[in-house]
Amino acid sequence: MISYARQNTEQQPDASPPADDHIAPAPRVSVQAFCETVETAAAVQSAGEDRRLGKAHLKIQMGGMAAAIEAYRTAPTPNVIILETEGRTDILAGLDQLATVCDSGTRVVVIGKINDVTLYRELVRRGVSDYVLAPVNTLDVVRSVCNLFSAPEAKAVGRIIAIVGAKGGVGSSTIAHNVAWAIARDLALDSVVADLDLAFGTAGLDYNQDPPQGIADAVFSPDRVDTAFIDRLLSKCTDHLSLLAAPATLERVYDFGAEAFDSIFDTLRTTMPCIVLDVPHQWSGWTKRALIGADDILIVGAPDLANLRNTKNIFDLLKASRPNDRTPLYCLNMVGMPKRPEINAGEFAKAIESQPIASIPFDPQMFGSAANNGQMIAEINASHRTTEIFLQIAQRLTGRGETKKPRGSFLSPLLEKLRAK
Questions:
Q1: Measuring CA to CA, which residue among 270, 254, 289 is closest to residue 162?
Q2: Cα–Cα distance between 398 and 175 in angstroms, integer?
Q3: 201 and 98 share a domain?
Q4: Confidence of residue 414 (pLDDT cuts 50, 70, 90)
Q5: How many angstroms from the chain centroid is the CA of residue 301?
Q6: pTM for this one?
Q7: Residue 398: which of 387, 390, 409 has the closest Cα?
Q8: What pLDDT is attached to residue 248?
Q9: For strand 235-236 and strand 241-244, is the pairing parallel, antiparallel, or unpaired?
């Protein structure tokens, strides 16, 4: 058992967690829980179904400390043992007995009802990895297990934001690229855009990049994927923004298994504070897995009936599949197109039971110029209202309310015009 411990003295409600409560997923580990109450067993069972413990193998038994000691007399111990116990004497005496049958490297999480610093110190001395006060909820268990495998100083690293269109042609890629630009430029957060539409991706065009390598090199060579390999595939767009580009060629087909991108995402999480996934509008095992596995999700829809239906279907499925995460977000794009009947934001909100976080106006001149020039909206017109909308979306998705945009002088507008010319 290792000699690091943390005491959880605050209970989190069973509600959507705040935007800055980022929990990194656990690796492939074995976890065995020995519970004394059905309430704790239910919380552990629910935690095992959480996406962040999707790779962990979880087994639950009743009987608490005594059952654990008996079980490991003749069997090897797993990576993590979760023990529920109710008394001070039972905890310390039981841990002393468990230590005689516990394999080196096994981490122990204790769930108890006693909030006492002396007991806490005794648990630390005996090598307990974490002490959590009962009663526990699902997120308490998820957080405790996941934090065993992530350094505390790396808490903010590895947030994955997935952006997907409710229908083809609604501009989700354009929004993904502009939001990533705002995250990198205005929030000064190191970010990478992963273009997952390998056949027809437009991130390279939008950022005016033509890298010789990209995400296809990684997905077709999973055995080579590591930090150094991914770094070689990244194309630098700005000081804070990199691109993992799609080949956008049709020489081969891109049929993948559900776990094809797992190693890529796991590697990016270890090096980048923010990963923006430009998810194509298709429904397959790997797109569903990418969306469910993301920390935050933005669905982009246009104001018509098909988009309303699709947005609701995607929203409901992701909300049900991620009961312990923040609910998905959605926005409306190309709002106010002349002579087109539209379903307004209020009707969307009524059907989906959630308000859109933004309504982006239809502006073919602005967006067409940006696409043809390989520029972001902020590069063409930094004061345009759509630029501010992208910044607001970036703040909402990252949980960062303050921008780090440098203060300009009174000559800044003139200098921007000169640079544009």
A1: 289
A2: 15
A3: no
A4: low
A5: 21
A6: 0.79
A7: 390
A8: 93
A9: antiparallel
1 belongs to a structural domain? no
Give 367-408 pLDDT, tens digit per residue: 999 999 999 999 999 999 999 999 999 999 988 764 444 444
Q: Round to whole Å and give the CA distance between 272 and 268.
A: 6
**Alpha-carbon Rg for the chain in angstroms:** 24
Report percent pLDDT > 90 for the chain. Answer: 65
Q: What is the DSSP string of 276-307?
A: EEEE-S---HHHHHHHHHSSEEEEEE-SSHHH
* Mean pLDDT of the chain, nearest integer: 87
> What range does the domain containing 21 cover?
7-153
Cα 381 from Cα 377, distance rounded (Å): 6
Are 107 and 212 in the same domain?
no
176: nearest Cα among 331, 399, 361: 331
Amino acid present at 30: S
Strands 191-195 and 241-244: parallel
| Residue that the structure tokens 């544009």 belong to | 420
The pLDDT score that the predictor gives to residue 100 is: 83
pLDDT of residue 12: 41
> What one-letter code names the amino acid at 227?
T
| 139 CA to centre of own chain | 15
Q: Is 210 exposed, middle or buried (0-12, 13-18, 19+ CB in 10 A)?
A: exposed
Buried b vs exposed e over 290-314: b needs ≥16 C-beta within 10 Å? bbbbbbbbbbbbbbbeebbebbbeb
Count how many domains the chain has: 2
Cα→Cα distances 225→215, 256, 263, Å: 11, 16, 7
In-domain check, residue 74: yes
Tell whether 149 and 260 lie within a shared domain: no
